[in-house]
TrEMBL record:
<keyword id="KW-0472">Membrane</keyword>
<keyword id="KW-0812">Transmembrane</keyword>
<dbReference type="InterPro" id="IPR003406">
    <property type="entry name" value="Glyco_trans_14"/>
</dbReference>
<keyword id="KW-0328">Glycosyltransferase</keyword>
<dbReference type="InterPro" id="IPR044174">
    <property type="entry name" value="BC10-like"/>
</dbReference>
<protein>
    <submittedName>
        <fullName>Os04g0607100 protein</fullName>
    </submittedName>
</protein>
<keyword id="KW-0325">Glycoprotein</keyword>
<dbReference type="Pfam" id="PF02485">
    <property type="entry name" value="Branch"/>
</dbReference>
<dbReference type="GO" id="GO:0016757">
    <property type="term" value="F:glycosyltransferase activity"/>
</dbReference>
<dbReference type="GO" id="GO:0016020">
    <property type="term" value="C:membrane"/>
</dbReference>
<feature type="transmembrane region" description="Helical">
    <location>
        <begin position="30"/>
        <end position="48"/>
    </location>
</feature>
<keyword id="KW-0808">Transferase</keyword>
<keyword id="KW-1133">Transmembrane helix</keyword>
Amino acid sequence: MKAHQLWQLPIKDMKSAPLPRGRTSPKKHLCILVVAFVSIVTLWAYLYPPQHYTSPMRDWLPAEPVRELTDQERASQVVFKQILSTPPVKSKRSKVAFMFLTPGTLPFERLWEKFFEGHEGRYTIYVHASREKPEHASPLFIDRDIRSEKVVWGKISMVDAERRLLANALEDVDNQHFVLLSDSCVPLHNFDYVYNYLIGTNISFIDS
């Protein structure tokens, strides 16, 4: 009965007790600041390590095996050092080297002649014929054969032939881009399109 009477009391007669407010301890604030400071210092040290810093992990790793270099490796090391220390040669007019790797006569030589026609001084041609001396139908390809050796598909001799082509092309300092082609390749765009596309980029294309 009393409970029923209490329920009937008007709202203005009911008093609400104030809820206790939680207070944050100063120690908690201090812990948060310390953790934040340590995190920032650790992240900074990870992103920007000292110049002469050596990781302690290096002392735990086994020492690298020391072996004597072969004559070819030592010669290559010297050549690479010379290449890296040599200042780049500025080309007066950039050219594209077209390097043909073919077993013999190029079947689309006339088509390539139309492609190169009128653009002298902007390209160079190199032909590596691995089986037989090619018979050139275009005057643009005459005297463009390099010393060639037999090439077997999928063997290291194919890589050697590509290196031979590249070595000959690198003798011309104006060659800035190098295109490796087979006897079955044909141009799909005109010379200006291909030239501007290659000269305007600094990346390599594989199977393009």
